[in-house]
User: Fold these one by one.
Assistant:
Number 1:
Amino acid sequence: MSEEEKTENKEKDGAVITENNGEKIYCLTIIGQIEGHYALGEGQKATKYEHLIPLLVSVEQSEDVDGLLLVLNTMGGDVEAGLALSEMVAGMKKPTVSLVLGGGHSIGVPLAVSTRKSFIVPSATMTIHPVRMNGLVVGVPQTYYYFERMQDRIIKFIVDHSSVTEDKFREMLTRMDQIATDTGSLINGTEAVECGLIDAVGSLSDALDALHEMIGEK
């Protein structure tokens, strides 16, 4: 594959490599809905997880990349796909930093906390709600058991990769006064930091400074 083709593929995936003082950072964006096993309709912004998994492998293996900046503005999406991507990022040895812009909703929450350090701008929001689905539900007890196990997996990941306690996170999941059609919480950047979900309120420059500091310590 030519360098021109590689550049074109990166642009399609919302990714770019920047260099400063000899340190190369791979910037990867997660936008719209995270598309999983089922394709979304035309006209919807989507991040395809089957594209990002090999991309993350290449970032981890590349000698030309020193760190990963994960920029999120997502409404959530496929739960298993989002959790798979989160585990991929959390398992990287290279320095990683996330920055939530606009929104880091639903399954975007584990993605936001999957990096070594997480930032959120003051105006961004994060929606925390239980796992849910649309359409016909068959075998209600079994479906409830599946949802409960999936929810436990998500909660464990978030608690293990942030400073929020399990009790606090479950409390936010079950609030009934903030989301009209569901239980859960809608929190802004400051609230996300205060509860321990995100490490710090900050801007792009703060996220980049933290990433360069990690690279320098490596």
Note: Strands lie at 15-20, 23-35, 46-48, 67-77, 96-104, 117-120, 125-128, 185-188, 200-201.
Number 2:
Amino acid sequence: MERKIISTAALMGMLAIILGAFGAHALKKHMTVEELNTFETGVKYQMYHALFLLFVGINSLFDEKVKKTIFRLVIFGVIFFSGSIYLLATKSISGIDFKFIGIITPIGGAMLIVVWGVLFWNIFKKKG
């Protein structure tokens, strides 16, 4: 499981850097400052959670079940949160109104909050 988590963290981090650079350079000419800031929020949260997964993957404090739970929550949380933000922020470029997916942004955010709670709880309950 550790290898899967760490490799996913590396891929998420790499994609966050690519998307951040893409937003800063290529999208800059086609989006408003507000849209770029929104896009950047998605990139930041993706990177934060790539680093989070890296931490979990290399940490021996957690058993396989906890790591699997954290992994799934982060993956779906980032896809729902950051992914929907990317689509919503690029409406002016794509011409597609993604408002209908706006409902999944807070679901993704809630998953990301819960995963930090899972981390806290599992560290809190450790003895020693």
Note: Residues 33-58 form the longest helix (26 residues).
Number 3:
Amino acid sequence: MKYLELTETNFDEVVEKYIEYYNENEEGCWTKETASKRIHQVMTTEDAMCLVQYDENDKMTGFVMGYYKQYDDLLAYFLEEIVIFSGNQGKGYGSEFLTELEKKVKANGGEHIEFLSVNDEHHMHFYGKAGYYAADNLALMGKHWEN
């Protein structure tokens, strides 16, 4: 596997594959405009680190996006999103990507990776086998209203 930074060079292809994955597999309604904005927002966050994964044939297989967050006692990486594109899941690419991400975060001085995850059996199994656990000292809070 090869890992490159997400840049303007590979941005459009990531956006296309993002839309395809979420609209075909997750019942999303992403457009080029909304997906571009979402990914660009994270890419341009201070201390962002976004990576694209390619297989041995230089085929794009997935990407991660996130950013470093400084706390008083440690530097953490907030994983905003990891996506393994359609046709590439179940091949170990996601597990390999998490391992590579951990190496890069450690090499940059990070001591912790944190993220929000869908709370279902599939996601809990995937992250659990990589050593991640559900935090019991935090609660996701939100408020939604119709416009």
Note: The chain is about 35% helix and 25% strand.
